[in-house]
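Inputs:
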Amino acid sequence: MSNNVMVFAGYTGAGFKKSAFEAVSEGRRLANRLNGVLTAVVIGSGTKETALELARYGADRILTCDHPALEDFDPDRYTAILTDIVKQYPPAILLLGSSYNDKNIAARLAARLDTGAATECLEFALDSDRLVATRPLYGGKLMAQVTLEGTPQIACIRSNVFPIAEDMKAAEQVMIEPNLAEPKTRVVEKKLKNSDKVELTEADVVISGGRGMGSSDFSLLEKLAELLGGAVGASRTAVDEGWRPYPDQVGQTGKVVSPKLYVACGISGAMQHLAGMSSSECIVGINRDPDAPIFNYADYCVVDDLFKVLPALIEEIKGQQ
Amino acid sequence: MDIVVLMKQVPDTAALIQISEDNVSIKTEDVKWVINPYDELAVEEAIRIREKQGGGKVIILTAGAGSASATIRTALAMGADEGILISDPALENSDPQITAKVIAAVLNNVNFDLIIAGPRAVDDDSSYVPAAISEYLGVPLLSTVIRQEISNGKIQCEQTVQDGSIVLEANLPAIITTQRGLNEPRYPSLANIMKAKKKSIVTKTLADIGLSSEQKLIKTKIVSLAYPPRRNAEKVIVEGASAEEKAARLLNLLQDKAGIL
Ligand SMILES: Cc1cc2nc3c(=O)[nH]c(=O)nc-3n(C[C@H](O)[C@H](O)[C@H](O)COP(=O)(O)OP(=O)(O)OC[C@H]3O[C@@H](n4cnc5c(N)ncnc54)[C@H](O)[C@@H]3O)c2cc1C
Ligand SMILES: Nc1ncnc2c1ncn2[C@@H]1O[C@H](COP(=O)(O)O)[C@@H](O)[C@H]1O
């Protein structure tokens, strides 16, 4: 039985996702405890050089598949490549991120290899050499400890939960020849804004607005998010009103975020909204209703009009800079 | 066009969830069960496609407890044509992989042009089943779709991604998963609720679909359940005579006490 750990490090044209560094860091910690080798896998186009960055987070070996045909994510291609790699370098544990693409590959790989997979993992323990993963159920109302049958044990980590730690290794890079499976879907058009905004699930600070915003003017939230290097989220009501796009929705039917700081502005704190943000490290509620349910969960409660608090907060921060 | 909707019955998102004595499952007695919210969008989209194409049928496929027939009935009242419920004692405490395997086995014997599913079930939040089914059946998967168009045996879908959307195309049969914004699910009318009572729901056991229970090896096993730690044990009300004062105090607190910013 191998006691090696493998990490699929999510890569986009713009570089690594933050969750790639988180997964490699956690992979290093697990490999240390298992006395195993940590292998990072990077698949994409133009990955050869960038892949080496992963040595800094503790990868002993970096397997790189670099091919122009891999520019766009394709589940069949990526899964075929990863399946070959897993067979050639069999790991005991395979970690991935929690983007839809990562979960897509994890599910396919588990189905192909007839092994167990767990998504949205928040914590890992080892029971001798087997993984015990903690993951939320019912929108975070419960935490489950799960074990995975078969090899490798496949686990996707939730973004922003596992700490990134540097642990420089003299990593060996191995280039992998891509096995280019025939794609089943074709990209017809990309409508991307190409902004340099931080992805909601990876942001350290999330400023969200709800019905209390009263209109699509979220400029106060955007200004605050910009000052703090964060992202803007929204409640479902704000999205349903057409004030914000669907991908900005936080909650049980939106994104799940775990930033260091979550500021809920004019959001009542419905259970379905909490499902998307209750694992934030620190929650601030700004609401003029002292009985708003958000105050049962917020660490810091500001009972006042958000249109008075936010401009003042922005000025205070600017004054300090 | 025959469309299969993969529909899961889940506890209402507002339901109180309690752990049972066995510590690996939840108390189900007082739970209100609903259609997984994303799957409601799937049912609606399937009905709209059938209406637009002017033919074919919408089949609801659920793996779950016997009581799940009630939510299938709701989908039939929305306008779906038939229901299939895969229910077997051996499927209790199953994991998403077994669910996918069992659904794929049933679909091997059902004619379909399109499968519509949710991107995730709000109870286990796995986002696993559609991709695994796509793998088992070898049909393309187009995820988190906000708009679709079908013509000449092809489906074109707009998929939401970070920073915008991507338009993808695939040959039918295919699987698509829904995203909020795809449509607004209808409420069943009283007349349709009455009509739905006459529509058929077929129940299948594992033996019916040729899977023995040995194949039901759980791969992802829950060993224990717990409630998350209570939040805001040290909740702070940010005091101040004015909004300005509160803002200044909040910033101080975040910097000093919480050590952020
Ligand atoms: C199946 C299902 C899934 C759902 N999924 C989600 C989800 O993913 N995400 C989600 O967010 N919701 C979700 N919901 C909806 C959820 O139940 C709530 O309806 C929603 O979160 C409420 O949004 P809100 O807090 O913005 O609005 P409201 O509940 O209307 O709250 C507005 C708040 O703003 C305050 N306010 C108003 N003006 C001001 C002001 N000037 N200054 C300060 N405070 C002010 C008010 O006091 C109030 O507390 C879901 C519901 C269902 C049934
Ligand atoms: N037991 C089930 N019966 C039918 N469809 C299911 C079942 N479980 C999951 N699905 C489908 O797969 C989607 C994603 O579920 P999951 O992978 O569990 O997050 C759901 O939205 C459903 O469309």
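The helical segments of chain A are 18-34, 75-88, 100-113, 219-227, 236-240, 271-274, 306-320. Flag for discussion at group meeting.
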